[in-house]
Amino acid sequence: MKNKILSMFLYVFSFILISSSAVFASDLSNVKGLSTSNKTINQSIQKLQVSKLNKNIYLASAFAGGAPQLTSYRVYAILSDKYGEEDIQQGRMTSYNNYDNIPGREEIVTVEYGYGTPTATIGVGHNEVKCVRTDSIDELGRVNVPGLPSVGFIRYWDVSNYKTGMFSSTNTSINSPYTNLYLNFYVQ
Hints:
This protein has one domain: Immunoglobulin-like (Sandwich), CATH 2.60.40. The protein has three helices and nine strands. The protein has helices at about 1-25, 40-45, 50-55; strands at about 70-80, 85, 105-115, 115-120, 125-130, 130-140, 150-160, 165-175, 180-185. The longest helix has 25 residues, at about 1-25. It is globular, with a radius of gyration of 18 Å. The model is unreliable at about 1-40 and about 50-65 (pLDDT under 50).
């Protein structure tokens, strides 16, 4: 009898957890903006749709322990003064907009599911670029909300000094089997 009650409780709890994820993911009040000197990039970051991210996030078990293995890594958007936010559809390998010789800031936004240690370069000289901001994604798809374990990260790479070229990144999982995920994206 106790096992049936416990089983029923876990079933109801799982149903509530899964059904509430869409509500939290579409509530953009949970998204915190970046305080940068650049108004356009700041507005674009605040417009990032958590619900777009949520469809790609797997719901981690509420009872699992440890950091999730790195399973996905991709370019999500390009933020710039001139174009604002250019959404990058999964599988696309190049930007639509031409970023050559435009003034101001430019950032490439990547999304990873799992825990990894990424590095990135851009251009013919393989110029190292810095990650200027990292946001966590919890198992409900919420960004930067404390309380639940993180299942992924949104990273902002400053490419303002280079603007165009091949953005290449390697991300290595921090836990076994230490998966390496690679991405190449051409910014024209």
